[in-house]
Amino acid sequence: MVSSLVAGHWMPADPLSPSWKPVFAAITDKDFLLYDTAPFTKEEWATPFQNHAILATRLVHSGKQQTAMGCQEILTFGTRSGTKQGVEAHVFRLETQRDLSSWSRALVQGAHTAAVMVKEVTCPVTWQNQDCKLTLHYDNGFTLAECPSGSEDNNPGLKAHILWHYPYEKLRMSADDGVRLLWLDFGEEGEQELDVHQCPKPIVFILHTFLSSKVARLGLIA
């Protein structure tokens, strides 16, 4: 367990008059977990009401925020998580600047640590009407390989044929339709369109985490 605390969870039923619900949040080496109350037993720890992969979660703001009526400043941080259903956003309220700083740091460092630990993520895709697998490797970038039906199961030692490979340095832009299509623009090498068979947001968020972690390790950001 990296960190945990009781925070305020934004309830967006009425944006003009937002209410806050007490929530217990925890970060592990893989997950960002939300509970209605502080868990004590193993069973309670295993049943959060929401569970987001820390690798696909990022901090989007941290600091002072005006309340809806504009009469008070509160301390909040916000997160966005890429899920199979799309992007889920949360806002949390804290009581002290120290708590805010601790949680902001824990979220960023937790995602970066997970990137180094996980190292690579692979997902099935369709590219130019072919069944393939796309691999994002922390060090090596993007690799698309053929995925012939049943060949790997019948012969685990058989290496898949690589269709293309690009280091992260080649990536100029990424985009998605929020439904199932992902576009990767490699500049002079051209743009690749991939059907990821589900919402592409998790793989997009993981890509951003990998890149952010690599930049942080180079000492280019705090």
Describe this structure in words.
- The chain has 222 residues and is of the alpha+beta class.
- It has two domains: 3-118, Pleckstrin-homology domain (PH domain)/Phosphotyrosine-binding domain (PTB) (PH-domain like), CATH 2.30.29.30; 120-217, PH-domain like.
- It has helices at residues 42-45, 97-118, 151-154, 201-217; strands spanning 3-11, 19-27, 31-35, 50-53, 57-66, 73-83, 86-94, 120-127, 130-137, 141-146, 162-166, 173-176, 181-185, 191-195.
- It has a seven-stranded antiparallel β-sheet with strand order 4-3-2-1-7-6-5. The chain has a four-stranded antiparallel β-sheet with strand order 8-9-10-11. It has a three-stranded antiparallel β-sheet with strand order 12-13-14, with no helix packed on it.
- Helix 2 (97-118) packs across helix 4.
- It is elongated.
Q: How would the global form be characterised? A: elongated
Multimer state: single chain
Uncertain regions: pLDDT < 50 for 5+ in a row?
A: 1-7, 10-16
Mean pLDDT: 85
Question: What is the N-to-C succession of helices and strands?
Answer: EEEHEEEEHEEEHEEEEH
Strand elements, count:
14
- The helix count comes to 4
Distance between the termini: 23 Å
The CATH architecture of the largest domain comes to: Roll
DSSP strand (E) fraction?
35-45%
CATH superfamily of the largest domain: Pleckstrin-homology domain (PH domain)/Phosphotyrosine-binding domain (PTB)
Structural domain count: 2
**Overall SS class:** alpha+beta
The gyration radius over C-alpha positions equals: 20 Å
Classify the fold: give the CATH topology of the largest domain: PH-domain like
What's the story with the biggest beta sheet? 7 strands, antiparallel
Spatial sequence of strands, sheet with the most strands = 4-3-2-1-7-6-5
Task: Give the proportion of residues in helices.
Answer: 10-25%
